[in-house]
Structure formats: structure tokens, C-alpha cells
């Protein structure tokens, strides 16, 4: 995406909200507005039409209207608006729900992880570009839940590691660097993973691979 990223931030905790704003602004992101409620978030997003919305999962007013509700409404009305949901706890079901409408331009991060500035910035940039930024613990949990049944049970330990990093959105080069193996070795693992999961060849770029893996995880682990 060209130009400065435009973001709206929502969290009912003032210190957390201001902390995220500070991190984003220091990273060169233009924070257009902030909100402390789900209703306020929708109003800000509809007024400013940002590239990305960063929102807390659980926010007032409640009774079915929280950060996840706002994220669903935004995705339904403005599919081009990317969404990063942050949560204090690991809630895999909400992560699966977030990608239900399409596993691109969405992120789900744990709040304790975004204390590292690069984590939030990387997530915002990744989803703005149409990618996915799911917390590694969420993906790992999904892989663990499904690995003993069906095709996931046929993956080797290394293939599960590669699958986890693929689902997080890492490129083959990024996976190789994290696992201290060569890019050709990663490519062989990717080929094996797609063959075992019945997803066809690994071509088509990072986004297509992530979409396929997330669709598979969603169908087997929900």
C-alpha cells in the first residue's frame, strides 16, 4: 500500500489505548481517531474510513455489542477496511470467527505481545497489505487441537512447525530464518504439507497459502 497508513484505535482502557496510539504514531502511522466503546469505534470508522482498525475484543456497552461485534459490522459494510483485534486472553473461537468472512486483512493479537512495538506495527502493516496477522499461540493451539485427527495427524513435527509459521503469514525465507533451515528445505516441507492436506501445490504466493491453511484449520478445528 502506498502512502501513510490511516488507523482508528479502540480500547476502553485509557492507558492501553494511548499506548497503542503512541506505538503506531512513532512507527509513522496516522492515527485518525480513538474510541472507548464499540459504538464509538463504528462511528469513528464510518467517519474517517481508515485503512485499518485496531480494536479491543471486549469493550462496552456489552450485551452483544463489543469489539468483535464492531469488527464484524466493519467487515460487512467496508470489506476493504482491515481489522486487528487485540485481547487479554487466548480465545481461539473468536480468532476463527474473525476469519470466517475471509482470512485476509485480519489480525488477532494478545495484549501482552503488543508491548513489543514491532509486533503491533508489523500486524497493522501486514493486514493493510491484505495479509493475516494471527497470534502464534492461536495458530499453535489450532494445530495442536487438530493434529491427531484427519490429515493434520499425518504431518511430521517439522511440517507442523512450518504450517504454524505459514498460517502466521511468514514467507518461505522468513520460515527458513526462524527454523534455521534453508529456503529449499522449507519449499519441500510446504509441498509436503499441501499434498497431505489435499490443498494442491504451494504456488500462488503467501496470501493464497495462508488462506488455504486457515480455511483448513477453520473447517477441522471449529
Written overview of the protein:
The chain is of the alpha/beta class and about 220 residues long. It has 2 domains: about 130 residues, Response regulator (Rossmann fold); about 80 residues, Winged helix-like DNA-binding domain superfamily/Winged helix DNA-binding domain (Arc Repressor Mutant, subunit A). Helix content is about 55%, strand content about 15%. It contains 10 helices and 6 strands. It has a 6-stranded parallel β-sheet with strand order 2-1-3-4-5-6, sandwiched between helices. Strand 5, helix 5 and strand 6 form a beta-alpha-beta unit. Helix 6 crosses helix 7, helix 7 crosses helix 9 and helix 7 crosses helix 10. It is globular. It starts with 5 loop residues before the first strand and ends with a helix. The relative contact order is 0.11. The model has no long low-confidence stretch (mean pLDDT about 80).
Amino acid at each position: 500500500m502506498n502512502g501513510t497508513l490511516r488507523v482508528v484505535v479502540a480500547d476502553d482502557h485509557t492507558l492501553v489505548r494511548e499506548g497503542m496510539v503512541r506505538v503506531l504514531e512513532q512507527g509513522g502511522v496516522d492515527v485518525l481517531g480513538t474510541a472507548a466503546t464499540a459504538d464509538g469505534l463504528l462511528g469513528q470508522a464510518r467517519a474517517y474510513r481508515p485503512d485499518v482498525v485496531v480494536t479491543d475484543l471486549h469493550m462496552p456497552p456489552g450485551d452483544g455489542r463489543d469489539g468483535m461485534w464492531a469488527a464484524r459490522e466493519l467487515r460487512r459494510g467496508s470489506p476493504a477496511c482491515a481489522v486487528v483485534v487485540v485481547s487479554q486472553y487466548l480465545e481461539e473461537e473468536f480468532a476463527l470467527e474473525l476469519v470466517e468472512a475471509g482470512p485476509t486483512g485480519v489480525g488477532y493479537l494478545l495484549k501482552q505481545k503488543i508491548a513489543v512495538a514491532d509486533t503491533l506495527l508489523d500486524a497493522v502493516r501486514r493486514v493493510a497489505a491484505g495479509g493475516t496477522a494471527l497470534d502464534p499461540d492461536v495458530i499453535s493451539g489450532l494445530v495442536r487441537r487438530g493434529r491427531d485427527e484427519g490429515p493434520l495427524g499425518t504431518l511430521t513435527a517439522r511440517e507442523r512447525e512450518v504450517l504454524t509459521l505459514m498460517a502466521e503469514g511468514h514467507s518461505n525465507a522468513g520460515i527458513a530464518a526462524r527454523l534455521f533451515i534453508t529456503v529449499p528445505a522449507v519449499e519441500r516441507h510446504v509441498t509436503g504439507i499441501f499434498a497431505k492436506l489435499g490443498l494442491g501445490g504451494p504456488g500462488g504466493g503467501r496470501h493464497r497459502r495462508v488462506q488455504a491453511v486457515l480455511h483448513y484449520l477453520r473447517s477441522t478445528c471449529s
